[in-house]
Specification:
The complex is a heterodimer. Chain A is mainly β. Chain A has a single domain, classed as Aromatic compound dioxygenase (Protocatechuate 3,4-Dioxygenase, subunit A), CATH 2.60.130. In chain A, the strands form three sheets. A five-stranded mixed beta sheet of chain A has the order 4-3-6-7-8, with no helix packed on it. A three-stranded mixed beta sheet of chain A has the order 5-1-9, with no helix packed on it. In chain B, strands 3, 6, 11, 12 and 13 form a five-stranded mixed beta sheet that branches. In chain B, strands 5-4-9-10 form a four-stranded antiparallel beta sheet, with no helix packed on it. Chain B has a two-stranded antiparallel sheet with strand order 1-14. Chain B has one domain: Aromatic compound dioxygenase (Protocatechuate 3,4-Dioxygenase, subunit A, Sandwich). The chains are: A mainly beta, B mainly beta. Chains A and B meet through helix 1, strand 6, strand 7 and strand 11 of A and strand 2, helix 1, strand 4, strand 10 and helix 3 of B. Strand 11 of chain A pairs parallel with strand 2 of chain B, so a sheet runs across the interface. Chain A: Keywords: Dioxygenase, Oxidoreductase. Chain A: One of its GO terms (molecular function) is iron ion binding. Chain A: InterPro entries: Intradiol_dOase_core (IPR015889), Intradiol_RC_Dioxygenase (IPR050770).
């Protein structure tokens, strides 16, 4: 059988997919707290922008993150933060399947007829990152696009759809 | 790692990233080739959702946002099956959906289309497939609405869907259209799908599930990426 073709998530996904975040009266499936930061002293914040080919911040993207090691999943739209960031509260995963710690990231937005897969790796895992089979499948000059620098509260991960810093997207 | 891997997106039916007639793709489509990676536990294990994620009225958009009456418009019932490419049903998988109301207006705050909101219709719901991969939900037929892509651009009637299947590799976000819609031939989103895939996005009118004196029936099946056991390296 043939796969059902993908179509864009469009500009109006918020009340269907991220209703509580955008203050619609419908219960969200999941939000951006993969863990409750109050209960988890080792919680980290992951935040970033999604940026288009002219360097403009995209305010209607939806980001999903999946931590297979801890079985944690989150979803957040870039339309509510004053800086149009996506923000996730989670814990840093450990290694899984012989790979360096990472989160799977899925990017949806108006203007994407089919979603994009990328990964977030952590800047303080140099040793494991150097051995990681996926990072090593990426041309070295583009590897940094997948490695989120550490900041005061967690990690910053900006997703560039195009341009010199274009994020690496995967055929998964 | 498992040698049971999921098929990649089938480019014979899937739309490309860049489709210039759909203007928003121009600055948002990745330009560099995708990096092919071997599927690992990260790609093959979840997330999984179940009954606890679906509320009692989530499958009935004609009831789940009532305030002082029934929503306006043509009631419809949509049913179908979620399968993989091998035709195997995918049981207990979550479907999320959202749509415009019968006047072609989305509840979303950004939608400025000058058509009325319906106080009794939100336009979003969820449904889980049963043990045979089947699903059914009730809603109001969505209206067409204008958008700014080009002069006199109108989106055909459609319902948005989000599906997970067993893991992130099978993730699908799509739109279901209605048979005979004259706007399909002008819609750059629909036309971005290769000709071989287009019919797969159009539901079929189904008298057998049409409910007498109540709701017209439409059938729409979903086919998510399936597995094959050929070792990845040899493909």
């Amino acid at each position: 059988m043939l796969q059902t073709p993908s179509q864009t998530v469009g500009p109006y996904f918020a009340y269907g997919l991220t209703p509580e975040q955008y203050l619609y009266d419908f219960k969200s499936l999941v939000g951006n707290q993969l863990v409750n930061p109050i209960d988890q002293p080792d919680a980290i914040t992951i935040s970033g922008n999604v940026i288009d080919g002219q360097g403009q911040v995209i305010t209607d993207a939806m980001i999903e993150v999946w931590d297979a090691q801890n079985k944690l999943f989150g979803r957040f739209g870039t339309g509510t933060d004053p800086k149009s960031r996506f923000i996730f509260h989670t814990i840093k995963p450990g290694s899984i399947d012989g790979q360096a710690p990472h989160l799977s990231v899925i990017v949806f937005m108006r203007g994407q007829l089919i979603h994009s897969y990328t990964r977030l790796y952590f800047s303080d895992e140099d040793e494991l990152n150097e051995k990681d089979v996926v990072l090593n499948a990426v041309p070295q000059e583009r590897r940094q696009t997948l490695i989120a620098p550490k900041n005061a509260t967690g990690y910053e991960f900006n997703i560039y759809m195009q341009g010199e810093q274009e994020t690496v997207f995967f055929e998964v | 790692m498992s040698d049971l891997t999921y098929n990649l997106f089938d480019r014979k039916v899937q739309p490309p990233y860049l489709a210039p007639d759909y203007k928003s793709t121009v600055l948002r489509a990745p330009t560099k080739p995708l990096v092919v990676i071997k599927q690992s536990l990260s790609e093959l294990t979840g997330p999984v959702f179940g009954e606890m994620h679906v509320g009692p009225l989530d499958h009935d958009l004609t009831k789940n946002a009532r305030i002082n009456g029934e929503p306006l418009g043509e009631r419809i019932v949509v049913h179908g099956k979620v399968m993989d490419e091998n035709g195997r049903p995918i049981p207990h998988t979550l479907i999320e959906l959202w749509q415009a109301n019968s006047a072609g207006r989305y509840v979303h705050k950004v939608d400025q289309h000058d058509a009325p909101l319906d106080p009794n219709f939100l336009g979003t719901g969820r449904v889980l497939t049963d043990a045979d991969g089947k699903y059914k939900f009730y809603t109001i037929k969505p209206g067409a609405y204008p958008w700014g892509n080009h002069y006199n651009a109108w989106r055909p009637n459609h319902i948005h869907f989000s599906l997970f299947g067993p893991n992130i590799s099978t993730r699908l976000v799509t739109q279901m259209y209605f048979p005979g819609d004259p706007l399909l031939q002008y819609d750059p989103l629909f036309l971005a799908v290769p000709p071989k895939g287009r019919d797969l996005l159009v539901s079929q009118f189904d008298l057998s599930i049409t409910e007498p004196s109540f709701a017209l029936g439409y059938r729409f099946d979903f086919v998510l990426r399936g597995t094959h056991s050929t070792p990845f390296e040899n493909r």
